[in-house]
Amino acid sequence: MAFPATRLRRLRSTGVLRGLVRETELSVSHLVYPMFVVASGPKRTPIAEMPGIDHVSIDGAVEEAGIAHALGIPAVLLFGLPASKDEEGSGAWDDEGVIQLATRAIKAAHPDLLVITDLCLCEYTSHGHCGVLRPDGVVDNDQTVELLARTAVSQAEAGADAVAPSDMMDGRVGALRAALDDHGLSETPLIAYSAKYASAFYGPFRVAADSAPQSGDRKGYQMDPANALEAIREAKLDVEEGADILIVKPALPYLDVIRRIKDETGLPVAAYNVSGEYSMLKAAAERGFLDERAAVLEALTGIRRAGADIIITYHAKDVATWLSQ
């Protein structure tokens, strides 16, 4: 019987050998931890749809950011739930709004922690859409972009280290870059949600952020899950308009898009491991269907292998703990 001369198993026989030839690294330095900050209420309120994740007050956000920072997580991503909403989402650019206050408080307490502010109007509008609605119920792209630019300046002036527009309006990266530059904020990076799909995996987030549309859906401005070439076009436009980092959202169903955008642009790429991806694994682990630690680390390693330089994930604290052990 002939035996193979090449035996790939030779380099799999021990943990040390596997470590020496490992192609993809997952470390805490790759993680961003998202947080939901509320304008008022208890320091912490558990979010039932996302086990292990809380709504936090501003004081709670400072505390939670400190925990993440102590674990070695380099950055947090802030989502705000305002005290009140209106048709335009004016709470988004309020200099005393929930995100602005939280950013100042976190930066004062943890100056070395990177604070990224999510920039969208959906958490602030009474109708739940990501921009101003026209009388026919369609989001007015250009009017919305003007308000997003105003919000970006307010967030950056509050101390945000980077601003992350997630609205998917056309031309918003260029408008935000111009507005920031005009206000002396040219050093503030833009982390653009370049390929944000109209995904079924946002369900838990929409409950947590109180941002579900009151009517219709977001398919008119978020991307069709069937399209990849369109994502490349979106990413390249954002690069031309001045984006510094590109986000693909969700992550696991779009690993091919992560790889293609990375290869096509050469820019740093962040993948958002979204609420539905998080809650699925949590639910399966709670039922005993899989090993949570092994499944999460495998999933995030797969996202890194696809080409993501950064992973935005609600698993960040758990992963940081596991990697340190």
Task: Report what the structure shows.
- With 325 residues, the chain is of the alpha/beta class.
- The protein has one domain (24-324): Aldolase class I (TIM Barrel, Alpha-Beta Barrel).
- The chain is 38% helix and 16% strand.
- It contains eleven helices and ten strands.
- Strands 1, 2, 3, 4, 5, 6, 7, 8, 9 and 10 form a ten-stranded mixed beta sheet that branches.
- Homooctamer.
Keywords:
38% helix, TIM Barrel, single chain, alpha/beta, porphobilinogen synthase activity, lyase, 10 strands, 325 residues, Aldolase_TIM, globular, ten-stranded mixed beta sheet
Would you kindly provide a brief summary of this structure?
Helices cover 38% and strands 16% of the residues. The chain is an alpha/beta fold. Helix 2 packs across helix 3.
Q: Give the low-confidence spans.
A: none
Structural class: alpha/beta
CATH secondary-structure class: Alpha Beta
How does the major sheet shape up? 10 strands, mixed
Following the backbone from N to C, one meets helices and strands in this order, namely: HEEEHEHEHEHEHHEHEHHEH
Report the mean per-residue pLDDT as an integer.
96
Task: Report the C-alpha radius of gyration, rounded.
Answer: 20 Å
Into how many domains do the coordinates divide? 1
Name given to the CATH homologous superfamily = Aldolase class I
Strand content: 15-25%
Measure the end-to-end span.
45 Å
* Count of DSSP strands: 10
State the helix count. 11
**Net shape:** globular
| Helix fraction bin | 25-40%
| The CATH architecture | Alpha-Beta Barrel
